[in-house]
Amino acid sequence: MIIIKLGETMKREGLNIGTLAEKAGMHRNGISKILNEKNKGIEFDTLTKLCEALNCEVQDIIQYKKD
């Protein structure tokens, strides 16, 4: 199972959707879809932008957990 940890990481860094969108050069809607798990996947380019903007690793955004 994939767990989305983006919200936790945003909170830890003190960022809201608008601020993260600006820092990452993304649209708010794209970030919102990830947070609300409304997308079917995350492109590598998107992960790169989020990691750079949040100064974090991929596992701070998504995590794989065995059932």
Question: How would you explain this protein's 3D organization?
Answer:
The longest helix has 11 residues, at 44-54. The chain has a two-stranded antiparallel ribbon with strand order 1-2. It is mainly α. It contains four helices and two strands, in the order E-H-H-H-H-E. The mean pLDDT is 96. The protein is globular and about 35 Å long. It has helices spanning 6-13, 17-24, 28-35, 44-54, and strands spanning 2-4, 62-64.
N-to-C terminal Cα separation, in Å? 7 Å
Trace the largest sheet across and list its strands.
1-2
Structural class by helix and strand composition? mainly alpha
The ordered H/E elements are EHHHHE
Task: Name the average pLDDT.
Answer: 96
Task: Give the beta-strand count.
Answer: 2
Radius of gyration: 11 Å
Largest sheet: 2 strands, antiparallel
| Rough outline | globular
Low-confidence parts: none
Question: Which key terms come to mind for this protein?
Answer:
4 helices; 67 residues; 52% helix; two-stranded antiparallel ribbon
Q: What is this entry, summarized?
A:
The chain is mainly alpha-helical and 67 residues long.
Architecture blueprint of SSEs:
Layout lengths: L1 E3 L1 H8 L3 H8 L3 H8 L8 H11 L7 E3 L3
